[in-house]
Amino acid sequence: MCNVLVTKKLPGNWIDYLKRECNVTLWEDIYPPPKEWILNNIEDKDGILITLTEKIDKEIIDRAKNLKVISTYSVGYDHIDIKYAKSRGIIVTYTPEVLTDATADLVFGLILAVARRICEGDSLIRKGEWKTPWYPTFMLGTEVHGKTLGIIGMGRIGKALVKRAKGFDMRIIYNSRRKHEEVDAEYVDLDYLLENSDYVVITVDLNESTYHLINEDRLKKMKRSAFLINASRGQVVDEKALIKALQEGWIKGAGLDVFEIEPLPKDSPLLKLNNVVLTPHLGSATVETREKMAEIAVKNLLLVLKGEKPIYEVQ
Fold it and tell me: Which residues form the D-isomer specific 2-hydroxyacid dehydrogenase catalytic domain (predicted)?
């Protein structure tokens, strides 16, 4: 039987499924395993199944003498040294597509929550501060229907957002590495998108070219009435610049599911701002999606170990 290392418990019965095929060494805690635990356990492993919180670098790959496959339970793979893994003949697999709709739903949830001040309203009631029944200027928010949505990146999630935005009769513009003829939206340059969007949504991968893509200069190009929404990777946004933008009113607000440091530090200035909605990396967090991700991650791993083509391989 093959020997595999698994760095997190997974939803559903997929660890039991894996155990029927392989000898499994499992990290039992909900917190990420220390790097030393991975180094101490990976030497004789044929495969490893990880999540986005585990960094698989050259040191770990060099320790894994028998490693044939790295299966990540995520759509992103910036936590893996892909180039070095491939140089060692190791196949890297991931779980795209299945989490597209769940993440797109969350993005629209963030848009609605920050624009219509839903979280502020909930907090007001819970604190017992709702003193007046109703009046015309109470807690006014911003329309979503009929506004301009700017999507940065036009992969699977970007395309899913286009479908949802159509239901809100939004004008949809996007910027991507190339024009997508099949997408019913207007292709524009990044500056135009920032200057004309009411809602700027980030859906790009994290890589060298997208690190701090949204910086101080680009935040200043946005409308003062606009909102920034990020459910991709925290490092795509210069968080210090964003905090300054929110504090000084360069933009109206933000909806954030990801952060430069996760969990978000308790002293983060973001926690003191009313014009931002914060969620703890919930993009794919539905029962249906997370169980399907577990199925794909396990099957990817096993297919490679059997010498077959995985469902999704990082190219």
Answer: 4-314
